[in-house]
């Protein structure tokens, strides 16, 4: 009898254990996630130790860094540390004090008395030390480093714990002498898959890492044993109300560039206004007088400015947040030296296939001309840079188009001075001085459609453009200031731009005759850097693709949904067919179609049952027909990031990775039986059959529509032979006829055993996600039988 009870119990426990394992198989809130790296970069040809903070990092066991020349390994992971009680804090302080006494030769302090026994005589648990990096490193730290870690810990101990940043990972990073300079993406991997990418920069300059305490008051007390010479890069982390200071030596007449990076490292913070760490950098002399300052560079929140050194001596670099906020993920890098920095480029691009050269302006540039890569087949927007003996400059963007190119000819700042130009074309121009206005004359043809578009802010120009198109009488036919939308679709493709300051108009020409195009800066600013490219042409329908998120974690046999965003330009509203390359045979892409006029859709990726644990770098492409041509575009991987509780941005990533993780549990096979797309009558319903193992249905299956469209709902399931069925319902009052999309349906167990009357039901509330159904394409149609 006892044996029978054990057997029965194990039989019913096993499915619930499997349910729990499968719940981990879903890519979602349980995925490991990194919030920051400190320091957030390092010099090549060095080996450094960094600390990463995040969530669900306890079981990560390897590090993946994009590009070549960087190897990294995990030293140790740490669980979140709660605020210590009095006895724990006393023991920690005593442990640190013993190391301090060892270094100074002083007697060690007395060990704290153990807690008093409870009143009832019950034994009191021994006081233990938490897992902290300072305790693991204590034997190797000098006095100043001990003070640094003590200060950091005391600040954290006084702060409200942040579970999103609470788990720590110590990592050793080894950088090769020839490692490519610039920003990389670092991810951790483990049984649950890969983390999100976090940025880590490889630099060419000597690096100095912050060592607390390093506040600015009093300035004269900042006397590290060796004051660094510039050029160098300073790394640090701003805690609440923190101000960091670094001392450096400079020589008279040096033209120093001070370049700060904070938002470049962590583009968006979801729970902070304005949505990023607003870095402020100042330079002070040894008397505390401010001699240089920066809090941004034009429309980029990260500060960059130049500083002509007035005399030989030591100076103090002061770093803080603009409103004295701070926490663990307020990390920064500030580079100081005679660094090359490009402030302007003209023209901002060239014709595809033509030899193109641009004049460059900036600080510490070894040359004033730069050849542009205009070879066919690459991206429409490209970047370039300049090297000098101190390193590589900032990357600057330029555009390549296949239209004829002309340069603006002055004078053209009044309508009477306008030069006639033939279009289609791209005009390379510049708002030369504050208040400047440029006019262009074209010949309009009645009924034709015209697009006039500015590329300036997207290419790094400080210009905030405005366009007016009018006839010879002065009547305005069309105008635009900031074009945040492309043909009615929010243009999220630029990722890091938060002010879409480029202008664009699209309109039908009412009459034959001359048209005057006026372009200016809305704030009446101007100068040598206020360059623009003005496209004048008939519509050129095209599209771009983004796929989010940039990392997909799933189990063998699992089905996971991803977003594909279509950025439609110049009226392109056609169907886009999606295809996948770079995955082993058996991977299934469901719902692989973006319907006409739709800007975003969710598709699903299903892995075969016996897929081994591995990481793949697939390529998602979209193909469409436009104007008698076939267009094929590769989807750029991106992450959908929230800025300051509200705004969202698609931030591009270097890689789109699909990680099949064995630790997420295997998934059962599931098949849909219905037409694709499924026709759903408005005011009616359409049936879907699902094939699924019986034991799963016996757990009490429920369906949930994930981010479903208005007016579409699901009926409760009906058990069938070999699975179950449900209906897709279109509400007559809210669903629209002719609407096309993919439905993403999640399958949950509700914890109520239904398949065996002799079995004990699980506890109510033990709701776990079993799987996601393959994407279900639908199209609503008129109801012929209301």
Number of helices: 5
Number of strands: 61
Arrangement of strands in the largest sheet:
43-45-41-39-49-50
Largest sheet: 6 strands, mixed
In one word, what is the shape? Answer: flat
Q: Provide the β-strand percentage band.
A: 35-45%
Distance between the termini: 60 Å
- How much is the average pLDDT? 87
Structural class: mainly beta
Residue windows where pLDDT falls under 50 for at least 5 positions = 1-25, 217-223, 486-491, 755-764
The helix fraction, in percent, is under 10%
Rg over CA atoms, rounded to whole Å, is: 31 Å
Task: Report what the structure shows.
This protein has 786 residues and is mainly beta. The chain has five helices and 61 strands. The strands form 15 sheets. The protein has a six-stranded mixed sheet, with no helix packed on it. The longest helix is centred in the N-terminal third of the chain and has 23 residues, at 2-24. The two termini are 60 Å apart.
Architecture blueprint of SSEs:
Blueprint: H1 2-24, E1 33-38, E2 41-43, E3 47-55, E4 62-65, E5 70-78, H2 86-104, H3 133-137, H4 143-158, E6 167-175, E7 182-190, E8 193-194, E9 198-203, E10 207-209, E11 232-237, E12 243-250, E13 255-261, E14 279-284, E15 290-294, E16 304-308, E17 313-321, E18 331-337, E19 341-346, E20 349-351, E21 356-363, E22 369-372, E23 381-384, E24 387-388, E25 391-392, E26 396-401, E27 405-407, E28 419-420, E29 425-430, E30 437-444, E31 449-455, E32 465-470, E33 476-480, E34 485-486, E35 489-490, E36 504-508, E37 513-521, E38 531-537, E39 542-548, E40 551-554, E41 559-569, E42 576-581, E43 588-590, E44 593-594, E45 600-606, E46 614-616, E47 619-626, E48 629-634, E49 636-643, E50 647-652, E51 657-660, E52 671-673, E53 678-681, E54 685-691, H5 694-697, E55 701-706, E56 712-714, E57 718-720, E58 723-730, E59 740-749, E60 768-772, E61 776-781
Parallel strand pairs: 2-9, 10-11, 20-26, 27-29, 28-30, 39-49, 40-51, 53-61
Antiparallel strand pairs: 1-3, 3-6, 4-7, 5-6, 7-8, 7-9, 11-18, 12-17, 13-16, 13-18, 14-15, 14-17, 19-21, 21-22, 23-26, 24-25, 29-38, 30-37, 31-36, 31-38, 32-33, 32-37, 34-35, 39-41, 41-45, 42-44, 42-47, 43-45, 46-51, 47-48, 49-50, 52-54, 54-58, 55-59, 56-58, 57-58, 59-60, 59-61
């Amino acid at each position: 009898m006892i044996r029978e009870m054990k057997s029965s119990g194990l039989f019913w426990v096993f499915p619930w254990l499997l349910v729990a394992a499968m719940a981990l198989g879903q890519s979602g809130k349980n995925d490991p996630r990194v919030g920051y790296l400190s320091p957030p970069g390092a010099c090549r040809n060095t080996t450094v130790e960094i600390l990463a903070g995040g969530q669900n990092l306890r079981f990560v066991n390897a590090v993946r860094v994009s590009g070549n020349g960087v190897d990294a390994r995990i030293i140790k992971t740490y669980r979140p540390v709660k605020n210590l009680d009095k006895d724990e804090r006393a023991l920690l302080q005593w442990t640190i004090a013993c190391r301090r006494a060892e270094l100074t030769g002083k007697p060690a302090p007395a060990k704290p008395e153990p807690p008093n026994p409870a009143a009832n005589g019950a034994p009191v648990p021994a006081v233990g030390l938490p897992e902290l990096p300072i305790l693991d490193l204590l034997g190797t730290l000098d006095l100043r480093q001990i003070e640094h870690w003590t200060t950091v810990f005391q600040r954290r101990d006084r702060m409200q714990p942040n579970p999103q940043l609470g788990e720590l990972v110590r990592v050793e990073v080894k950088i090769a002498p020839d490692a490519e300079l610039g920003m990389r993406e670092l991810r951790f991997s483990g049984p649950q898959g890969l983390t999100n990418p976090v940025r880590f920069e490889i630099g060419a300059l000597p690096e100095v890492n912050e060592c607390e305490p390093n506040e600015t008051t009093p300035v004269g007390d900042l006397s590290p044993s060796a004051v660094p010479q510039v050029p160098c890069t300073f790394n640090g982390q701003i805690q609440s109300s923190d101000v960091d200071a670094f001392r450096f030596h400079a020589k008279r007449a040096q033209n120093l560039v001070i370049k700060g990076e904070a938002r470049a490292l962590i583009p968006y913070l979801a729970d902070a206004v304005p949505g990023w760490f607003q870095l402020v950098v100042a330079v002070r002399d040894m008397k505390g007088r401010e001699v240089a300052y920066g809090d941004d560079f034009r429309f980029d929140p990260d500060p960059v400015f130049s500083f002509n050194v007035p005399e030989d001596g030591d100076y103090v670099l002061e770093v803080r947040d603009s409103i004295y906020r701070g926490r663990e993920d307020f990390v920064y890098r500030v580079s100081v030296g005679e660094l090359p920095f490009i402030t302007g480029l003209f023209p901002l691009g060239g014709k595809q296939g033509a030899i193109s050269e641009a004049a460059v302006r900036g600080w510490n540039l070894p040359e004033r001309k730069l050849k542009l890569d205009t070879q066919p087949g690459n991206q429409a927007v490209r970047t370039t840079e300049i090297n000098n003996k101190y390193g590589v400059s900032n990357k600057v963007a330029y555009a390549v188009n296949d239209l004829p190119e002309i340069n603006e000819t002055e004078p053209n700042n009044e309508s009477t001075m306008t030069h006639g130009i033939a279009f289609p074309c791209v005009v390379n121009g510049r708002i030369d001085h504050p208040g400047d206005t440029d006019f262009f004359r074209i010949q309009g043809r009645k009924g034709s459609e015209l697009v006039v578009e500015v590329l300036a802010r997207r290419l790094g120009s400080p210009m905030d453009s405005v366009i007016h198109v009018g006839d010879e009488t002065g009547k305005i036919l069309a105008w635009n200031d900031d074009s945040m939308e492309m043909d009615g679709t929010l243009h999220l493709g630029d990722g890091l731009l938060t002010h879409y300051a480029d202008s664009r108009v699209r309109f039908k020409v009412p009459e034959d005759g001359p048209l005057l195009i006026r372009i200016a800066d809305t704030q009446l600013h101007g100068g040598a850097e206020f360059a623009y490219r003005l496209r004048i042409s008939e519509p050129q329908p095209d599209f771009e693709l983004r796929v989010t998120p940039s990392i997909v974690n799933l189990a063998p046999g699992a089905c996971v949904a991803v977003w594909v965003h279509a950025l439609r330009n110049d009226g392109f509203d056609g169907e886009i067919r999606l295809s996948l390359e770079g995955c082993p045979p058996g991977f299934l892409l469901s719902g692989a179609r973006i319907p006409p006029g739709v800007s975003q859709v969710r598709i699903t990726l299903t892995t075969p049952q016996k897929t081994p644990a591995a990481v793949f770098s697939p390529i998602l492409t979209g193909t469409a027909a436009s104007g008698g041509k076939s267009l094929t575009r590769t989807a750029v991987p991106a992450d959908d990031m929230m800025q300051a509780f509200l705004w969202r941005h698609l931030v591009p990533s270097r890689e789109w990775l699909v990680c099949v993780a064995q630790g997420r549990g295997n998934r059962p096979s599931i098949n849909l039986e219905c037409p694709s797309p499924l026709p759903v009558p408005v005011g009616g319903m359409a049936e879907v059959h699902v094939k699924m193992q019986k034991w799963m249905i016996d757990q009490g299956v429920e369906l949930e529509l994930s981010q479903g469209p208005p007016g579409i709902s699901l009926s409760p399931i009906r058990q069938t032979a070999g699975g179950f069925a449900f209906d897709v319902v279109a509400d007559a009052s809210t669903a629209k006829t002719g609407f096309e999309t993919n439905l993403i349906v999640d399958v949950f167990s509700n914890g109520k055993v239904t398949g065996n009357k002799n079995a004990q039901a699980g506890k109510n509330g033990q709701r776990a996600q079993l799987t996601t159904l393959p994407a279900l394409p639908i199209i609503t149609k008129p109801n012929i039988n209301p």
